[in-house]
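Design job #97: recover the sequence.
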């Protein structure tokens, strides 16, 4: 938490230095001061490098203010020409050589960027992207080396340094050789960079036609013979949405049927977790229609999106809406779900939600399969899990519209944190917001930041600005994070190009488990946590907690599996019984209003089981929300898939294409 604040403060300081350096160069041109210009120019280069190396959040603000990287270099170059004209003459040798050098550099930079853009565009025109399938037969060459592609604008812009230094040296010494040598070095480096890129770019542009590529993919799929697909598409491409797919990966891998993952947006593949399941990403609907999966009879959909229709049109496939969590939100019982053959819900509560919507779906469409993801959760033992009572505050996000704004962060988040911090008992707080919190509403984003600030300030007050308890653990955690990043990289960038997807997945998951265990040991037991990254996972937070405080969301439904006390915000001010009748997940919860009244009761119940009047109701609610404990959810999930697949085969028997060289008796 402290490192983010330090990075932000460092970014502001560096940005201030950067802006002052440009103002200094402007003053130097006006005063015709070579030493001032030289010092400010050097400072501007150093500040620019530091800003990018620290990944400062102020970079985006500079771009939005029309003071981005390219603009900064252009301004510095024009100021240099201005200094040349002020010291000597605009038609002087140094001014002419500087102008020619900058013009040639610009042309070479333009050619370099245009070539890379052409390569990327051509590669994006491939009809699909895959993971876990062997498409070596297509002969698709690798992209140019990452050094030639990554941050290429920054790299080529900085090639003006020899020219700038040579021009300043010539102005200082009146020796024409400095600017000449500087120009030659700058132009040579830019030209050499382009020459190095050209062969790699030419190789990367040797691509198969669309027909050749799809034919080879169909050949590979005919060998793999997928039977069940997880299909996902989403208009807003972000890692924050990919949890909807990632939560189902292990359940998909455990199926007896042969699975495949079908994505529609290329960028989503970047945010998909490691999995041994083969993945195809097919952006265009026409190309998807040409993909042949003759044994595919079940398609699972974790989200409702318009482009679902491109898979739904496959008549031989049974289509199932599995969602991305059971809750009392309207999205968990959407009338649009009637387009699916079946809707798989966790327990009886999911069935009841749909049955309350008249004429939406029929009872036989709904299948109760439990929540396979909840296997890692540790059940309530009747006493606190660690040394200090721990409360997880896990609010949902603000939703797509204000009408569907279920989050408590805006009206009550700050009040809740203050109340917990002011309690006479020592309480550890884990703040685990929905990943999309603050993405739509500036008000929610501001409330989110205030909650984080309160927790950071309390940590700083008790433990100092640096709350890392074990530097050794922190270093190990950094090494594990880097190992996960290296293992997640594929292609020419990969340090492990020979790993199979099964081996890669096993190593990444093992590393994540190690990182999750180290995370808690790297910070003092009593310190608060703000969890906004993948590690630790939500369920790790559940296992660390004794009480959950949340909103109407699937997070609460999942937490019920632990049988631990939990509290929900009743922000509409409804009478308790009416609220519990409307929101089934609130049946066994303690209720809080906008002023956090009811918090003391929830805390007392957590710390003193004899006061926990909701304990028997939680046991009832668990089965109602999530289904029976036996058989395990993964068994029911697998059985539902097998049953639907058998019905799909019965309705549409598998038809294999006849081999071209087949001979039939007369």
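Job complete. Output follows.
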């Amino acid at each position: 938490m402290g490192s983010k604040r330090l990075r932000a403060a460092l970014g502001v300081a560096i940005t201030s230095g950067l802006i002052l350096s440009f103002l200094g160069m402007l003053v130097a041109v006006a005063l015709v001061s070579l030493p001032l210009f030289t010092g400010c120019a050097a400072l501007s280069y150093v500040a620019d490098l530091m800003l990018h190396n620290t990944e400062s959040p102020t970079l985006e603000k500079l771009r939005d203010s029309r003071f981005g990287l390219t603009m900064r270099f252009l301004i510095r170059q024009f100021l240099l020409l201005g200094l040349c004209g002020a010291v000597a003459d605009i038609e002087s040798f140094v001014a002419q050589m500087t102008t020619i050098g900058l013009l040639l550099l610009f042309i070479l930079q333009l050619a370099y960027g245009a070539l890379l853009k052409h390569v990327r565009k051509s590669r994006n025109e491939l009809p699909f992207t895959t993971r876990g399938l062997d498409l070596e037969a297509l002969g698709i060459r690798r992209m140019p080396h990452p050094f030639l592609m990554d941050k290429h604008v920054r790299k080529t812009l900085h090639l003006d340094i020899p020219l700038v230094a040579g021009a300043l040296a010539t102005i200082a010494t009146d020796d024409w050789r400095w600017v000449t040598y500087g120009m030659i070095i700058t132009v040579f480096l830019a030209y050499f960079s382009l020459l190095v890129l050209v062969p790699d770019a030419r190789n990367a542009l040797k691509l198969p036609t669309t027909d050749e590529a799809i034919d080879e993919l169909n050949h590979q799929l005919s060998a793999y013979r997928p039977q069940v697909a997880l299909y996902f598409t989403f208009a807003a491409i972000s890692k924050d949405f990919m949890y909807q797919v990632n939560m189902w990966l292990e359940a998909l891998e455990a199926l007896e049927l042969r699975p495949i993952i079908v994505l529609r947006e290329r960028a989503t593949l970047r945010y998909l977790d490691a999995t041994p399941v083969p993945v195809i990403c097919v952006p265009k609907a026409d190309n998807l229609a040409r993909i042949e999966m003759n044994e595919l009879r079940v398609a699972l959909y974790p989200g409702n999106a318009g482009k679902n229709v491109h898979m739904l049109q496959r008549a031989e496939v049974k289509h199932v809406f599995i969602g991305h969590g059971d809750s009392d939100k309207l999205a968990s019982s959407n009338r649009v779900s009637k387009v699916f053959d079946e809707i798989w819900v966790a327990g009886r509560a999911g069935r009841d939600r749909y049955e309350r919507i008249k004429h939406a779906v029929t009872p036989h469409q709904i299948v109760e399969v439990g929540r396979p993801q909840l296997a890692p959760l540790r059940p309530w033992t009747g006493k606190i899990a660690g040394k200090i009572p721990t409360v997880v505050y896990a609010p949902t996000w603000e939703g797509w519209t204000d009408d569907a704004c279920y989050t408590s962060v805006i009206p009550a988040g700050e009040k809740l944190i203050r109340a917990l911090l002011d309690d006479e008992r020592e309480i550890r707080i884990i703040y685990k917001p929905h990943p999309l919190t603050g993405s739509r509403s500036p008000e929610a984003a501001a409330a989110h930041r205030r909650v984080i600030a309160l927790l950071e300030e309390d940590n700083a007050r008790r433990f100092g600005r640096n709350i890392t308890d074990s530097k050794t653990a922190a270093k190990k955690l950094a090494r594990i994070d880097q190992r996960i990043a290296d293992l997640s990289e594929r292609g020419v960038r990969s340090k492990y190009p020979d790993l199979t997807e099964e081996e890669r997945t096993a190593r990444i998951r093992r590393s994540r488990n190690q990182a999750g265990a180290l995370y808690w040991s790297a910070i003092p037991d009593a310190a608060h946590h703000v969890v906004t990254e993948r590690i630790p996972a939500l369920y790790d937070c559940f296992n660390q907690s004794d009480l959950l405080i949340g909103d109407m969301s699937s997070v609460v439904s999942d937490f019920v599996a632990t049988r631990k006390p939990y509290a929900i915000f009743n922000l509409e001010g409804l009478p308790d019984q009416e609220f519990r009748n409307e929101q089934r997940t609130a049946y066994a919860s303690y209720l809080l209003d906008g002023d956090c009244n009811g918090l003391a009761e929830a805390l007392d119940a957590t710390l003193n089981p004899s006061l926990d009047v909701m304990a028997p109701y939680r046991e009832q609610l668990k089965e109602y929300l999530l289904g029976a404990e036996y058989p395990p959810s993964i068994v029911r999930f697998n059985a539902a898939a097998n049953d639907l697949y058998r019905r799909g085969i019965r309705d549409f028997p598998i038809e294999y294409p006849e081999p071209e060289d087949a001979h039939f008796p007369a």
